[in-house]
Amino acid sequence: MILTELTSVPSGSLPLALLKDHLRLGTGFSSSAEQDDLLEAYLRAAISAVEGRTGLVLLEKSYNWALTGWRHYDRQVLPVRPVQSVDAVTLVDRAGAEAVVPPETYHLERDSQSPALVAVGLALAVIPETGSAEITFTAGYGPLWSDLPPDLARAVLMLAAEFYEHRASREGASLPPAILSLLERFRKVRLLGGV
After folding, report:
1. Cα–Cα distance, 46 to 165 (Å, whole number)
2. If I label 19, which of 76, 83, 117, 159 is the partner at 20 to 30 A Cα–Cα?
3. Alpha-carbon gap, residue 129 to 68, rounded angstroms
């Protein structure tokens, strides 16, 4: 299974002004664009760390997920959440020939813990032997920073500030307890061993 990020978060969607306010940068620094590239890098790193810790996609992005078999014949749980839409399902045979699966044969089951591609009939399309299925989907809370739950937005800002303020000594450090406490309720709940 290979998950590929097809789009990235545009710079305009990142809350640089909020991070500058959070850092309480001195006079002249908050209005200057000199540090914008550095602050953007720390915001992106903080977003990645929060997404990795929670299994969530914060700001809307498109993904392609290639897999060689369905976990269940009639449904496939998607690897990240929240999922906004399933944009396409394509079957690829061993020679590389592609066949688009008709969208009326499946639908997205929205779920806060395990969003899934679900068959409309008895089963999802049959994946060719030694072939794969590619699911293209859009995930994230939305395209704007204001679409995020406040606790997640606060955790990202706090972590970006932590990265910025301790940039020389962050190697191998774990997430601070205050940030972990904000993220705890967003972690994926695993029941029955993930089955």
Report:
1. 13
2. 83
3. 9
Averaged pLDDT score across all residues of the chain: 90
pTM, full prediction: 0.88
pLDDT at 106: 98
d(CA 116, CA 75): 6
Q: Are 78 and 117 in contact (CB under 8 A)?
A: yes
CA distances from 26 to 31, 32, 159 (A): 9, 10, 20
26 contact partners, CB below 8 Å, separation of at least 6: none
Cβ atoms of 187 and 54 within 8 Å: the answer is yes
As given in the structure block, the two tokens for residue 35 are: 């540090």
- Residues 84-127 pLDDT 10s: 999 999 999 999 999 999 999 999 999 989 999 999 999 999 99
Q: Which amino acid is at 175?
A: L
Tokens in use for 15? Answer: 């809350």
| pLDDT single digits (tens) 151-162 | 999 999 999 999
What radius of gyration do the chain's Cα atoms show? 20
The DSSP symbol for 173 reads P
Q: Transcribe 71-105 into DSSP letters.
A: SBTTEEE-SSB-EEEEEEEEEE-TT--EEEPPGGG
